[in-house]
Amino acid sequence: MYITMIASECAPVAKVGGLADVVFGLSREMEIRGNDVEIILPKYDCMRYDHIYGLEQVYDNLWVPYYNRRVHCSVFFGFVHGRKCFFIDAQFEKNFFNRGTYYGCDDDAERFAFFSRAALEFLYQSGKNPDVIHCHDWQTGLVPVMLYEIYQQAGLTHPRVCYTLHNLKHQGVAGEFILRETELYRADHFIHPERLQDNFNPFAINMMKGGIVYSNFVTTVSPRYADEIKHSSHNAGLGHTLYVHGNKIGGILNGVDYEIWNPETDIHIPYNYGVNNIDLKFGNKEVMRHRFLLKNDYKPIVAYIGRLDSQKGVELIRHALFYSLEHGCQFVLLGSSPDREISNHFIHLKGFLNNNPDCHLEMGFSEELAHLIYAGSDMIVMPSLFEPCGLTQLIAMKYGTVPIVRETGGLADTVFDADHAYKPFSERNGYVFQTYNYEGLESALSRAIGKWYSYPQYFRELMINGMKADYSWNHPGEHYLNVYNYIREK
Ligand code: ADP
């Protein structure tokens, strides 16, 4: 099968969060299964160009419709750790992808609507005819809309579209101008409750809603999140749309790329280890302490790795930090936030804790450091308010780092409480709490710390259970292939 991924992120070249890992990992899995996969991305100035091999311009004559004129783009090709990637370079005064950042510009909606149009225009003009187009999140929600409303008439009748919702929090809500920008026009047709009209603002269009309405199948990144958004009020205003299209929506748990995230072979950690020589993990703990100037002491290290976003439970992350320090632990945080207030808060906290020998806060994004922290920590906290899937807990488990999580979305599907889960002990792998408050978090964190100190052998078994669990792309790969085949045959 010939599959084209259209996305705003792909690890490790353009990564903000889990979306990037999924685009890379799923593409690789599909290739392993004998499919031909190409990925189309914007050519950002801030990408990790050191991860692209053989980058060259392959197409210089891409003229993309934009407000009734044609904008010149060129397309580059390169391999990202073996994956075939095309990068669209928009060469005009708006410099859409030369902003030194992936997201967070006032015109994000316009930037990614343009990218979606450019990606389809590239497929069309270059004569590419994939069996399946797989697009992701609001940034590429207009792809199926434009495919069926513009490009089918032009002859691009073959591709079917699978659309994955990674997070309903951001939906790409923008003004009618997007219809003029992309030359979809026909506001009466599109700004309609059953098409692109935002469910709250009758004058706005909602790109994610467009993606749901127009694609052939919609997936979200865990069965629990699919259930939550379809059957509870946690649907970010898309409840009606998800209800109407419910029979083409399913949850497929994300996988982890064990080629990259594997403590036995990881090139970023000083001591490789696995279930049979787990003690070597503690060499990484020592190196991490040295690197972060933490005291060498008989204490567990609790970590947080991730975006610092209200979704991730920032006040509970902060509480976990102080609770850990007060209860005989060390704490390491690696995080970044586009939200100035949250970012300033943690920068202030970093200054306040600067001389504390049991604590290190690293503000920023570092793939390399993330590997060391997964390997060097004993526990990881994820007290999320909601969590579509969560890769952090899955990666942590592979590294024998015990997750402490709130029972929501993908966290509920993957972390099973050491004391309370309805599972045999061999499948219990962490600590879980339900209520989003300090007491809830403490109820899980205190049990984890208690076990680490009082029953180290038991704690070790939990680590091993997590390391042995299979959260590779193998099973999700099979499910996605079934979806692709299903929409091809429809
Ligand atoms: P989300 O997609 O909501 O950000 P996930 O848990 O699904 O959360 O995926 C997060 C991914 O991003 C993981 O691979 C994690 O290691 C990585 N990550 C998040 N923040 C950072 C950071 N500051 N530095 C390095 N890696 C990070």
Can you tell me about this structure?
The protein has 490 residues and is an alpha/beta fold. Helices cover 37% and strands 20% of the residues. A nine-stranded mixed β-sheet has the order 3-4-5-2-1-6-7-10-11, with helices on both faces. A six-stranded parallel β-sheet has the order 14-13-12-15-16-17, sandwiched between helices. The radius of gyration is 23 Å and the shape is globular.
Going across the biggest sheet, name each strand in turn. 3-4-5-2-1-6-7-10-11
Mean pLDDT: 97
CATH topology of the largest domain: Rossmann fold
| N-to-C CA distance | 15 Å
Number of helices: 17
| Count of extended strands | 17
CATH class of the largest domain: Alpha Beta
Strand content: 15-25%
Low-pLDDT residue intervals, each spanning 5 or more residues: none
CATH level-4 homologous superfamily of the largest domain: Glycogen Phosphorylase B
Question: Which ligands appear in the coordinates?
Answer: adenosine-5'-diphosphate
Structural class: alpha/beta
Rg: 23 Å
Second-tier CATH architecture of the largest domain: 3-Layer(aba) Sandwich
Morphology call:
globular
Q: Note the main sheet.
A: 9 strands, mixed
Number of discrete domains = 2
Proportion of residues in helical segments: 25-40%
